[in-house]
Design a protein that fits this description.
Layout: E1 8-12, H1 18-21, H2 31-47, E2 51-55, E3 71-74, E4 77-80, H3 92-102, E5 107-108, E6 122-124, E7 129-133, H4 139-148, E8 154-158, E9 169-173, E10 176-180, H5 183-195, E11 201-205, E12 214-216, E13 219-223, H6 227-236, E14 240-244, H7 247-250, E15 261-263
Parallel strand pairs: 1-2, 4-5, 7-8, 10-11, 13-14
Antiparallel strand pairs: 1-15, 3-4, 6-7, 9-10, 12-13
Amino acid sequence: MASHRYTHAIVCRIPNSFKTKALGIWGEIDLDVAKRQHEEYCKVLRGIGLDVIELPPDENLPDCVFVEDTAVVCNGTALICRPGHPARQKEVEIIRTIIKKELELPIIEIADPKATIDGGDVLFTGREFFVGLTDRTNEAGACALAAAFPEYPVTPIRVSHKLHLKSLLSMAGPDILCVSEGKESKSVLKRIEQEASFRYQTVTVPDPGAANCIYANGTLIHAAEFPESIKVFEEKVDFNKIALNVSELQKANGALTCSCILIKKTKYLKKL
């Protein structure tokens, strides 16, 4: 069974420019609330046993808080992504440095100049990868992921109407997929079930925004903004759960997984 155990998380604080210049803003962002929510996010990650590496905000990169899109780390190796939106491609530079020099992990660069891939389109189940083919991630990007992690099956899944695959579904537990009742989520789930090398359980929530959650170190972190979906988690999930509010990040198409890179560093002993 996949353990989803991690030792570290990389996060980035929110720049002031996020309020007006982040991509995809659909509502007025309260920057002070956003920063408080992010502080609580980091606190929760530390609370489940992660060493959290907090990067300073970069005012020239309004979306830098969404670090998930910059790298995919698995089995102690990091694939440095090439985000599909040109405005975000500089975000990978500091992430590359942190992973290589501070965490001392081997990195893999994407060789194909035509390849693009956002980490938000990469769902790792612990047994295999699914890669959303979206406006940000193309087939060459999926091939780059497959080349980086040949020990796992990699299945491309075409996604429409949504920014990232993990806005439609995510891991809610060991071998448990969380999906919403929305038409696109159900369609993507059906395709995954057809292509998967393993049969997964599912938890279906009524709110589209609740389908993105984090499962790490035996704990499910789910969105606190959706009471009806919280009822489903309470009923269906029998291990540790934490409700976390990221409402202000959602106004720029952010979600729970977007703001961290989870890493398991082997032979790592946390200092007492």
